Amino acid sequence: MSYGLIDFIGNVGVVIIVVAYLMLQLDKISSSDLLYSVLNAVGASLIVASLIVDFNLSALLMEVFWVLISFIGIGRHFRLKTIRS
């Protein structure tokens, strides 16, 4: 098994998602914070990039939904910000 750049990119994505979840559990961020949704979207997108090269359908579906749900959180943040303004 070789370890290449795309593997590194996927691993960075995993670290980003884990750090976001850790920050949530430590009350450093809230699940409604923009940062939480952005970190999840970026992390999952990096994992998707690695899965396109080293294909795994189940993992790809999980990460695509993770990105889409994160986009819902990002959109919600801006929608609520507009309403409050």
Written description of the protein model:
The protein is mainly α. The protein has one domain. It is 81% helix and 0% strand. It has helices at 5-25, 34-53, 57-84. α1 (5-25) runs antiparallel to α2 (34-53) and α2 packs antiparallel against α3 (57-84). It is elongated. The model has no long low-confidence stretch (mean pLDDT 96).
In short:
The protein is mainly alpha-helical. It has one domain. 81% of the residues lie in helices and 0% in strands.
- Helix proportion range: over 70%
> How far apart, in Å, are the first and last alpha carbons?
53 Å
- Number of structurally distinct domains: 1
Percent strand: under 5%
Mean pLDDT, nearest integer? 96
The general outline is: elongated
Q: What is the count of helical runs?
A: 3
How large, in whole angstroms, is the Cα Rg?
A: 14 Å
Q: Which sequence of SSEs, written as H and E, runs from N to C?
A: HHH
- Outline the biggest β-sheet: none
Strand tally: 0
Low-confidence stretches: none
